[in-house]
Amino acid sequence: MNPKDPALQTYFIAASIMSLKMMLQAWITVYRMFKVKGGYLHPEDIKKTGLNPNPNSNQLKPDPYVERSRAMQRNDMENIPVFLIIGLLFAMTRPALWITQILMYGYVASRLLHFYALGTAKTHDLRATFFTIGSLIVIGMCAYVLIFAIKG
Amino acid sequence: MNPKDPALQTYFIAASIMSLKMMLQAWITVYRMFKVKGGYLHPEDIKKTGLNPNPNSNQLKPDPYVERSRAMQRNDMENIPVFLIIGLLFAMTRPALWITQILMYGYVASRLLHFYALGTAKTHDLRATFFTIGSLIVIGMCAYVLIFAIKG
Amino acid sequence: MNPKDPALQTYFIAASIMSLKMMLQAWITVYRMFKVKGGYLHPEDIKKTGLNPNPNSNQLKPDPYVERSRAMQRNDMENIPVFLIIGLLFAMTRPALWITQILMYGYVASRLLHFYALGTAKTHDLRATFFTIGSLIVIGMCAYVLIFAIKG
Asked: Which residues contact A108 (CB under 8 A, 6 or more apart)?
């Protein structure tokens, strides 16, 4: 397996963007917790420390602004790891480059649009549209890999 | 690495089935939200849209039928991504085909039975049995990969 | 791709340790549920069975000791699957061995220290330090893989 193979190269680009996106969501949660000085999860987080000089127990209450970022991260967890693996297996089957590019960059675009729609509280229907596109791409790649492997 | 290698082929089949299973769980949640017209997560989901023509605030209350599907998906997230990776690494060590088949298809069977037991609210003890089989298979593969790599 | 390649061998060791860690977190949750005889998630878990001979409805209340283990597992889910994939892609780019070892074993160390800090309720600031080290390592590997693939 050679990362210079064009289909694999496409996968490397899509996979690293999606991985970055998922890692950055945790930092968006951190940013939001700092901004509202709350939304913390654990009792020890209201001990007085350098990062929390004036703790109070309200900081442990769920905060909608912080919780939205956590919901976005849960949505990432539900979707991105499966893409990361099935994308690799798909690329290993030596598919046509143009199909690989449409599927992988289409997936990246659908997830970034979903991120935008959920992050800015757009309507459910718009968010569901982006989710559906990404989900169908992954399901299609799963089916392709399964058929490829069964046919041997 | 050649997807036509028999151990890798077995892995491709198991991995694509498990990936499909995890993707479909999201659609089971969607199906259940449509069926009960509720169990939504975000405030914007009770805006009037084509998919939600008669919104009301009760739609944001947790619904047990919907939450069960979300719990099933969380259980998938806890288990399937690790299998997807460690299964690939295991297959790359060129294990005997029959061992690979027992472990990988055994894992798929244990997860589908766990899905059945949790989805139909069978007893904890039955569900725990299926969980344990799948978990021990993955732990065994982790230990094998670790020893293989340390021995060089 | 040859698992005997030194960078890949380093990855195999780090990946199998991180996979084991994530699998064992589920068993820590199980251990804690048995110890407090509670913290169960599903209504069917208070049916009388061999593993739960004296059920009562309080067993479905969230228990802080059990919930902490679930929070640790959620933190694993947010972080480890991305490392498992991006670590593989990073190793496939044939990086220098010493860099690979620093990044991968540094990641393993940061996650085990985070596990210790969260598991024993150390201060937020200590826990955040370990989280940050691991997160920056993964983000760095993502950026490296992305640049490597774009440069072709």
From this structure: A14, A17, A18
